[in-house]
């Protein structure tokens, strides 16, 4: 069966994770997020998790070989057979080439580019605070009742290692390198550019509007 594969592409802090979740719900498709898969490996303390720890904390990319394995496994799963949303993958041309090798000829690739300026990214990310219990906050956009402490469990909040300003700048450099490489590809059925500097529901509506056009064309075929 032909699948639509949506690649959610945007800088760190563009809200692509949130948008992937909203789109996944609307289309009833699974999300394959390489960042989440890698963080899961770390939490579970696997060999692979230990191997990528320092690389991730610096904001560098882990090896292509390793991520493509994770993606290939998930793409083979039964719930991925009608289409998927890929979040955070591919990150460079090599990963795109790897992806093209493992998908079917009938699969259609759509790039959803969530565009956000670097200054906005820095403001969004460096204000993030997390709690060991899993809760997430932002000092400006989602503040806690007591500054620096979790509303849910009362523990002291932390800054994710890869959310430190110098690391975010490094992640942005990597992102811009990746963006050029990916945009140069002619392997996408369509590139959908979305203004990511709107509210979360507005970004979602813009994405959905474009995706529904694709589905309508397919119905006509
Ligand atoms: P993310 O949650 O997508 O921002 O990813 C967090 C970190 O995981 C990145 O800074 C990388 O270290 C690693 N990572 C996630 N996806 C990839 C990928 N496709 N290729 C290489 N490294 C990745």
Structural summary, described in words:
This protein is an alpha/beta fold and 221 residues long. Helices cover 48% and strands 15% of the residues. The chain contains eight helices and seven strands; from the N terminus they run E-H-E-H-H-H-E-H-E-H-E-E-H-E-H. It has helices at residues 16-27, 34-44, 47-58, 64-76, 93-102, 118-126, 165-183, 200-220; strands at 4-9, 31-33, 83-87, 108-115, 128-130, 136-138, 190-195. The strands form two sheets. It has a five-stranded parallel beta sheet with strand order 2-3-1-4-7, with helices on both faces. A hairpin with a 5-residue loop joins strand 5 (128-130) and strand 6 (136-138). The longest helix has 21 residues, at 200-220. The radius of gyration is 18 Å and the shape is globular. Bound molecules: adenosine monophosphate.
What does the average pLDDT come to? 92
What is the oligomeric state here?
single chain
Order of strands in the sheet with the most strands? 2-3-1-4-7
Bin the strand percentage. 15-25%
Largest beta-sheet characterization: 5 strands, parallel
How do the helices and strands line up, and which of them pair or pack?
Blueprint: E1 4-9, H1 16-27, E2 31-33, H2 34-44, H3 47-58, H4 64-76, E3 83-87, H5 93-102, E4 108-115, H6 118-126, E5 128-130, E6 136-138, H7 165-183, E7 190-195, H8 200-220
Parallel strand pairs: 1-3, 1-4, 2-3, 4-7
Antiparallel strand pairs: 5-6
Helix pairs in contact: 1-8, 2-3, 4-5, 6-7
Bound molecules: adenosine monophosphate (AMP).
């Amino acid at each position: 069966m032909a699948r639509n594969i949506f690649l959610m592409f945007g800088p760190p802090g563009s809200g692509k994770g949130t948008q992937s979740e909203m789109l996944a719900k609307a289309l009833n498709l699974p999300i394959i997020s390489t960042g989440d898969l890698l963080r899961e490996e770390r939490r579970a303390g696997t060999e692979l998790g230990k191997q990528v720890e320092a690389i991730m904390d610096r904001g560098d990319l882990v090896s292509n070989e390793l991520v493509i394995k994770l993606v290939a496994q998930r793409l083979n799963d039964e719930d991925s057979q009608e289409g998927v949303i890929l979040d955070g993958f591919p990150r460079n041309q090599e990963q795109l080439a790897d992806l093209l090798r493992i998908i079917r000829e009938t699969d259609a690739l759509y790039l959803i580019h969530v565009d956000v300026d670097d200054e906005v990214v820095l403001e969004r990310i460096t204000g993030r605070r997390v709690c060991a219990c899993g809760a997430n906050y932002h000092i400006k956009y989602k503040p806690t009742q007591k500054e620096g402490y979790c509303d849910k469990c009362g523990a002291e909040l932390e800054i994710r290692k890869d959310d430190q300003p110098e690391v975010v700048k490094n992640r942005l450099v990597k992102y811009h390198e990746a963006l050029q490489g990916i945009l140069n590809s002619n392997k996408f059925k369509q590139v959908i550019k979305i203004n990511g500097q709107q509210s979360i529901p507005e970004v979602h509506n813009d994405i959905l509007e474009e995706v529904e056009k694709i589905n309508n064309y397919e119905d006509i075929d």
